[in-house]
Amino acid sequence: MNEEEAKTQAVEDAKDGIKRRDFLQLMTGAFAALAAGGCRFQKPAEKIVPALVAPEEGLPGQAAWYATTCGACPAACGALAKVRDGRPIKLEGNPEHPVSRGGLCARGQGSLLDLYDSQRYAGPRVAGAPVDWDTADLEVIRALERARASGKAVRLLSPTWASPSARAELARLRARFPSLRHVVYDEPSLQASISAHRLTHGRAALPSYHLEKAKAIVSFDADFLGTWGSPVQFTKDWAARRKPDVEPGLMSWHAQFEARMSPTGANADLRVPVKPSERYGTIVELGRLVAQKTGWSGAVPPSGPTSVSRSVLLQTAAALVAERRRAVVLCGAADVASHAAANWLNHMLGAYESIADLERPAAFASGEEGGFDALLAELDRGEVAVLIVRGCNPAQDHPRAADFRKAAGKAGLVVSLAGRPDETAKLARIVCPEHHYLESWSDHDAHGGVISLSQPALSPLRGTRGALETFARWDGRRATDYESIRSYFRSSVLPRQKKTRSFETFWEDAVRLGALTLGGGAGKAAFIPSSLPALKAPPVSAFGYEFIAYQSVALGDGRQANNPWLQELPDPITKTTWGNFASFSPSDAKSLGLVEGRVVKLEAEGVSVELPAHVQPGQASGTVAAALGYGRSGIGVMAGNLPVVKMLPIDFQPASGADVMPLSRAAAVTVGLLSRVERLTKTQTYDHLVDPLLGERRDHARETVLADYLLNPRAGNPAEAKAHSLWKEHEYAGPKWGMAIDLNACTGCSACVLSCNLENNVPVVGKSEIAKSRDMHWLRLDRYYSGPPNALEGSPDVSFQPMLCQHCGNAPCETVCPVLATVHSTEGLNMQVYNRCVGTRYCANNCPYKVRRFNWFDYAHADLSANLALNPDVTVRSRGVMEKCSFCVQRIYTAKADAKVEGRVMRDGDVKPACAQSCPSEAIVFGDLNDPKSKAAKLAKSERSYRVLSELGVQPSVHYLTKVRNKRV
Amino acid sequence: MSTSHVSPLREPLVDGVKDLGQITRDVCGPLDAAPTAAWYAAFAAALCALSYGAVMVIHQVWTGIGTWGLNKTVGWSWDITNFVFWVGIGHAGTLISAILFLFRQKWRTSINRSAEAMTIFAVMCAGIFPLIHMGRPWLAYWVMPYPNPMGPLWVNFRSPLLWDVFAISTYFIISATFWFVGLIPDLATMRDRLPEGWRKKVFGLASLGWSGSHRTWQHYEMVYLLLAGLATPLVFSVHTIVSFDFATSVIPGWHATIFPPYFVCGAIFSGFAMVLTLMIIARKVMNFEGYITLRHIDAICKVILLTSMIVGLAYSTELITAYYSSNHYERFAFINRIKGPFAGFYWMMVFCNVLVPQALWFERIRRDVRVLFLISILINVGMWLERFVIITISLHRDYLPSSWTDYSPTYVEIGTYIGSFGLFFTCFLLFCRVLPMIAISEVKGVLSYARGDQDKESRHAH
Question: pTM of this prediction?
Fold first, then answer.
């Protein structure tokens, strides 16, 4: 099928709701399963150990939780997989994991759906035809043998593979095939930081950051709450210091100097738009001010251009110096000079003594300087006999992907380990698909001093094979991944700990907990001042707009680009779904005559990309930013839930966007306006708390500044007027469920949105439905800009507000339903009875919070195997009924049943709704408001607490805590 | 019907010198002849509209409400706008037949039959919308309180939507009964005129053995009077209850105590405008100029002028209340009508409903049917817009700015609306062909109205 046909087929399939091919495929699978005499979903053959005390293993209807390690991004957070009836149906953060400590980001949670992707390879392929493993292995081994005989190069290309047992396995393979070399690249990577540390500290390492110790954080383009480094860990640490009521003097101060508005910048106390070309100059200028204040007598890096006002820099320097040894500077640039200058700042501030840990460095997205380019040259010269690609997609995910596509033809043999078709696997003669991470054993040491261990949550769904086993086979051994990892742990990890001598005990603990902390580490690395004067400011582009290609919170680097949950996850800042766009500052948009949706052509070095424009308040003038990961071709059909058409055709829009990877190394692009307009599909179309006609500010998202808060904890939070009622209040003899959401801790990361989607079987509705404002999210993140709606300059204050059903005591929806389909429970829940709902939508109209969602169509999964990710505890709603947040009522009832079985009363914290569970910043607290000792009740009574629209007398059960900005004015 | 002495200074209610037989022939004559080409053309158009609407409704019911343009913020728009629009239209019929009857307004006699028919057809059109706007219309019977094995599970008596169910169904039943009872003497006339055959049998059955005796007349008039008394409160209650759908809610722009009287007046206003439209066509097409005289038209115009001014007063009261409330949301809801994205609709509404009817102060205009036809259409448009303004503009920007959206209808919504006009006119055109459009017996009763007794006697001599 050529591309055009594939596209038509995709559109046709989407219309049908069910893909013909998928249907056949699945039916074949189903019959095969029947013939085999049983269910395909089963525990793996090896012994796996649930995280919590297991009931009788494999009890139907009982969920077991298995600790694993999230494989969605290099940060390798600890995750728990909820397995029901043999299949994982939910991923949550693992509270026991030393790094992520219970949080899990949106992409991590969404990766569950990748497991059930029906387009995954069913087994190995040679030249596109399915073969058995022996045939594939034989061909690879022969090629490897030939390469050894002729001395030609064998290359393994992968992103940073932070797995100690994989390294051991590779070493063994290299012993057999000496011409094998492992080429590592990450795109985007944190490699500049490593290079800079080699320069300034003589150690090529990426420090581990302990932001919980930081009282002053200054970040230059490092989106550490969004996609930079280890966002869940950083969010957790950052948020720990955003709770002003815990103790005085706890609050940190956070400044962000950045070009585009990132989620991190949106949460900063001070945000300064700075063009990338001025980043180095700004860091050095700040460094000089800090040097003055700290009495730095060493060498100083040469200065560069900056337009940041001196007063802002003075203020920043003062704040940093005031918190010496508790201050850190983060840098997210791709140039070494900026990083080196930031290292200098960190050294002067004493950050290396506390916050930035070079002794136990991190290893994510570390890349390898020039490795990829050297490989391309080797390929071009025809020196590579065998190229093995694992965990990456160089035909797409590198700026020189086009060169790779050309050069790959010159390799003797290309072998891909991709689990599902991608651009590179299509070029490869042999595909040896590896497991999804939820099916495989693996270990990770991305975080200094911690080894995470993943156990499979189910036996492989398809005829895939673990990467380590594949390498072992090529090495002539028959070791499975499980055996390789166990033997590595026995030989290398067991001796490094002192808890137990018995390997089995040690192993079982490690598997159950999912991670272990190890001591040791390298010694201190001393700062080398003499490295500074040699720094060179990055060159400034003479033309066009400076270009920033960034990772979005929803898609990251784009490896999950065909995951419909993530495509439909609104970007935290722009609230856009299903496509990327080019962001411009308001003043640039004005001078270019751009309005939102106007398609622009970005061009540099002969590469051009067409994207709809977006006007972003707070973006640095003279820059244009676009997200990576969108617009990928060759990843197959986007298998969302789509409206099922039964009679006349209804709108269908495929996912949009363009791949900006080829442009991502360009410092600047020229911008041309095309005559086309492509509307961005947003879930929020009005951005401000100030209304556009009267100019009055609405106080839904309340805020104050720290200085005012310290004087008066009720600052910015006028007390609720006493409501008078003719009627008796509801009485709650037992618990009264409620929630407290700390707006100061919420970073807008949207993990809760995705968590809610998964837990509650919230349908994905597709781009055309989002364009009609019909997103189904039960929990949404409202993002507001403060300040006048038409401000052109400066950076607006941003607030995020998770908005969900407020479970009102006097719920306006309950009175208006003619058929009693929405009723009040004795525990304060506002319950929606799907069976009873006839769909008048009166309740949604009368909801002041507009959190009710209507099933406009039957939203069927286009990819039927995605149905396996559905939560059996939650009804899948049919069309024509209303739905909304239930406070995860299924979890409340599970917790109640558990308490009853254990013969105890329920404790605070027994019930954690999906949103609260996965929130990396612990901004959402759920509990019994009737229990004065519960955390939620305490927060609800705090001076920062208020209820949105309480003046309507609806008695909402969700309390918000005011945002306290640590502004130094 | 009863006759009484009326001053000869008053204008007569029926033009021309006619005897009783002439009236029967005038009204029943067209029913005997084959339909005209104009009727066929109109009927074909109405049927086309009806079938287009039917296809749209089937599509919508089969595929989902998603075929409409509604969204997470705007849950009602054209559907409920059309519902309120059609219910409003109906009100004039009941007002004319019941209230004007109780107030002894003799001029109603020549228009009450068709006005009542209009009421019934309008209520039928109105009833369709709450039914099909449901997500699962096949479960619509759940809104009825009936004994059931689910508990029994009752309906929510606190929901204004349930009150609507009762109000509209009561209204339809009473209106239909009232109309039928009023028809009985005329059905008997038809029966008596028809030659033997199935039509005579049908009319014979329908006229319930009417004998025309004094006793029959006495009973008949008592029943009619009682039914008029029953129907009268409905004129006020139905639209009051419809307005509760909005007034009892918490949405700014909906939540208003002024709504019941405002809606009732608006309903009468729009209903009379529709009566005017239909009467102007009917008197021309059916040659009823002698029965539906310019004096009738004039009287209708006066009612329209009065109700227009009440509606205008309501508009300004809403604005002043919002301003005086000092409530941000309330103020914004109204400033958003005036200056927001849908401002054009608001100003069109003000133009049609408040400014245009001011022309009716002038007698020359009140008696110029061409101008009046245009005015009546504009008022119909304006009153549809009024409901659109209230429903959609209030919803699309309510409390939390994060949920503000736009709304635009799809071809399915527009098609369904066109279909409702198709249904209305199909029914009305069939009515014109099958039943006497003018209440023969009542018109005979007012024949002598404002004519001297001498005149009356002279005509009886003919």
Answer: 0.90
